[in-house]
Specification:
Number of strands: 28
Largest sheet: 7 strands, parallel
Number of helices: 13
Structural class: alpha/beta
Strand content: 25-35%
Radius of gyration: 23 Å
Oligomer: single chain
Length: about 450
């Protein structure tokens, strides 16, 4: 299949250079111009897409070169850009940073190549003048085909920008164009915590910050030049996903609140495409699970920050435990897994799994992993693999042993509780990394539906 997608990738020189702020400014400015905007994030991050979604009013997807084949990446970009005027892809870390310290695998650069997308480099200009062009030149020349066609200067003054833009033209002779700048905007700073930025729902004045960013971008960024650059991307070629459509629907409860908010939207979308009805509920606020459910999703998030409130909601803890005891299929990732254990930091939880969870005070088993199933279970057959990602400071006394997790470096360990009705572990999974897992979860939900109906 072939589809025209106007697209551009915004890359950073490093983490912390301001690319998320720049991307949010551009997204809001384009939306305020009346355009239908698509948004994507390179890599496995959950939080940046939450900000994207708040701005564009639609699903923001992840494009991950470790999780997905090249075809899957093009497919997901095309599917979520079908009714968009332009799609903006936010990079991860520095442009060439990949899954290993000296590898470009799964980097923003490889994503730009896979998606045949022009890239715009976000360069932090604070405290620098001509030296920032040395940084730009280094990124242009580091790989023969850098795909960098534009540069945006962040934390750049209005007095400095004209000289930098002229120097870009003189030095690079049209090879790359200056597309504007954003000055330092302290009022728009987004706070961070141990897992990255605070979530979009926690920023009380988010709309005001975005409005200010949009006004600034419309004044000092060459939006027409950005749109023109995005329009140079050639049509995308891809094959459709092999997803069955089941005649019999299932009803799956999905935990969504301040404690459980880390989901890959395309992963949930795969369940919907197969015929599932996804029903939102809150383990913090609700006292019962939604009626008539056939499956349960407990995503990651920050249950440790809400442990007291989760513990106090005894009716919900009992309801979740009863659902699991009755055989309701459940996928519980990271924070969702922690919720199913006996306690988080001394606060009682569901108690469906043995052991408690505690704060290690540092990142634990961080990064990409390939999970290999030891025996047939809810998601996988014995020996089957699915790729995932871990990112957590808290740990469990009994993290499970249903899978072997292998890092790209070769380091391995046992992880996750895996039965015919349960996946519960620290690794986050994406169904598009192995659509067989989505099919098996759906079919387990179908089996539970038929059991409930006798």
């Amino acid at each position: 299949m072939e589809q025209t997608v106007r697209r551009v990738l915004l890359a950073g020189t490093s983490s912390g250079c301001g690319k998320t702020t720049v991307v949010c400014a551009l997204l809001q400015a384009l939306v305020d111009r009346g355009l239908r905007v698509g948004a994507f994030k390179c890599g496995p991050d959950y939080i940046d897409p939450m900000f994207h979604s708040r701005i564009i009013g639609a699903r923001s997807g992840n494009l991950d070169g470790f999780f997905f084949s090249e075809n899957t990446m093009r497919l997901l970009l095309a599917k979520n850009s079908a009714d968009r005027d332009i799609s903006v892809i936010e990079g991860v870390m520095g442009y060439y940073d990949g899954a290993g310290l000296t590898s470009t695998a799964a980097s923003s650069w490889e994503t730009a190549r896979t998606l045949d997308a022009p890239a715009v480099l976000v360069a932090d200009a604070k405290g620098a003048a001509l030296s920032v062009l040395a940084v730009v030149q280094g990124f242009l020349d580091f790989q023969e085909d850098s795909r960098i066609r534009g540069v945006l200067f962040n934390r750049c003054s209005g007095g400095t920008y004209p000289a930098l833009a002229a120097a870009v033209e003189a030095r690079f002779g049209g090879r790359v164009r200056a597309l504007g700048y954003l000055p330092e905007l302290p009022a728009c700073r987004l706070e961070s915590r141990h897992l990255g930025l605070v979530t979009a729902g926690e920023v009380a004045d988010l709309r005001e910050k975005l409005a200010l960013l949009s006004r600034q971008a419309q004044e000092t960024v060459d939006l027409e030049g950005l749109l023109e650059l995005a329009g140079t991307a050639p049509p995308l070629n891809f094959q459709p996903a092999d997803l069955p459509r089941y005649d019999e629907p299932v009803r799956i409860a999905v935990a969504r609140d301040r404690a459980f908010c880390f989901y890959y939207e395309d992963s949930l979308g795969a369940l919907e495409e197969m015929g599932a009805e996804l029903v939102r509920f809150s383990p913090l606020e609700d006292e019962a699970l939604p009626e008539g459910i056939d499956g349960l999703c407990l995503g990651g998030g920050y249950p440790e920050l809400c442990a007291r409130q989760l513990a106090e909601n005894k009716p919900m803890r009992r309801a979740v435990r009863q659902a699991l005891e009755e055989g309701t299929p459940c996928v519980a990732e990271c924070g969702g897994f922690m919720y199913l254990t006996e306690a988080i930091g001394g606060e009682p939880m569901v108690g469906a799994l043995p052991g408690d969870c505690f704060d290690r005070g540092r990142l634990t088993r961080f990064g990409y992993v390939t999970l290999r199933s030891k025996a047939d279970n809810l998601l996988c057959r014995a020996g089957e693999e699915i790729r995932g990602h871990e990112f957590h400071h808290w740990d469990a006394r009994q993290p499970g042993d249903g899978f072997t997790a292998v890092k790209p470096s070769g380091r391995s360990w046992d992880c996750a509780v895996a039965t015919d009705r349960l996946y519960a572990g620290f690794p986050h999974l994406h169904f598009y990394a192995n659509l067989n897992c989505a099919r098996r979860f759906y079919e387990a939900c179908l089996a539970r539906r038929r059991e409930r109906r006798g």
